[in-house]
Amino acid sequence: MAATKPDLYKILGVGKNASDEEIKKAYRRLARQYHPDTNQGDARAEERFKEVSAAYDVLSDPEKRRAYDRGTGPFAPGGAAGGGFDPNQFGGSFSDILSNLFGGGSGAGRASGGAGQRTSRPRSQRGRDLETEVSLSFEEAIDGTQTSLAVPTSTTCETCHGSGARPGTAPTICPVCHGRGVEQQGQGVFSISKPCHRCGGSGSIIEDPCPTCNGSGARRTIKRLKVNIPAGVRDGSRVRIAGKGEAGMNGGEPGDLFVVTRVADSPIFRHMGDRVEVEVPLTVPEAMRGATVEVPTLNGSKKLRVAAGTRHGTVQRLRGEGAPKLGGRGRGDIHYRFVIELPRELTRDQQKAVDELAKTINGNPRDRLFRGRTEARA
Question: Which residue ranges does the record annotate as region Disordered (predicted)?
Fold first, then answer.
């Protein structure tokens, strides 16, 4: 006997000429009515919800709806196994439908066998990221270095291998969220998902905890490792060491380690963004008549020409002589800030020389302050 094509319109309670909006409204009403969270333990409601979801999966998709109306492809009579209505061919398994439509049901949290089984395969979880600090000298920060760290962390429990359950037992499906890891407030498509309060979002509970780790699946330890600090880090830089955080649970990938650098001050150099700054003292004669002075660099020293009449605070730059830029993008600059130093006390000869110099300098530079105010009033 030929199989009968399922009447998806009848399942949703709409006519064959129903609009997309009418189909959506019908689905929402029925989804609220038969949602498993409001019909716990009702196998018939569960099947109806599955049928409604599968019907909507077809009728809400224009191409699938046209194929269904034509009776072609998987929607042809006899296409479903046994000739009856098989919702799985339209929208996947029941847990998949829940996952796609209501945000629940990751495959990692479902039962490992049929619906009657209580054991559950715990979902894998990525390990936590860790953060630690390292103290560096200014030179180590500029040049880069390798340093040893001792980082408090967690490792997979060697007794239960991370499951958290006593050897010979296994976690069970959470009775509150039924393995999905989420609870929902409200109904149907208007519900709000939140982590399950019973299992914390894992989808499973541990009834007989591992005696070694007390059900956590991990043990605290100190991880000792050597890490490379790249050249050019600054005080407060965060260096990411991939995969060196806490171990993942149940086969999950490990987290990352972030190393925050604390860089000591240099008596000579100051790190100012991409540049390094140095204060260079000048005598009064050097500033007035110009000079060639030797200045420190990060790798030795160089000579700079100081122009005659250089003022206090003047900056001169050496391109590409500064600290390496993070990411290997070349080097920054060194800025030399000239600071004119005056003697605190003068000898008799120095005082005489200053007096003679004052006689040769014309005008008072402060006169322009008053001249400018007078001009502004005029």
Answer: 105-134
Ranking 160-174, 306-320, 355-369 by mean pLDDT, the lowest is 355-369
Three-state SS at 248: coil
Give me the sign of the Cα torsion angle 77, 79, 85, 91.
negative
| 1-to-80, 86, 153 alpha-carbon distances in Å | 14, 17, 66
Nearest to 56 by CA among 15, 87, 96: 87
- Tokens in use for 311? 């003022």
What does pTM read for this prediction? 0.52
Angstrom distance (rounded) from CA 340 to CA 288: 10
Mind listing the pLDDT tens digit for each residue in 160-204?
887 888 998 888 888 888 878 887 766 555 567 778 888 877 788
For residues 42 and 339, what is the distance between their CA atoms, to the nearest angstrom? 86
Residues 21-43: tens digit of each pLDDT: 999 889 888 887 887 767 777 88
Which residue ranges form the domains of the chain, and what is each CATH number?
8-102 (1.10.287.110), 130-263 (2.10.230.10), 269-345 (2.60.260.20)
The alpha carbon dihedral of 275, 281, 284, 285 has a sign of negative
What is the distance between the alpha carbons of residues 317 and 277, in angstroms, rounded to a whole number? 9
Binding site: which residues? 157, 160, 174, 177, 196, 199, 210, 213
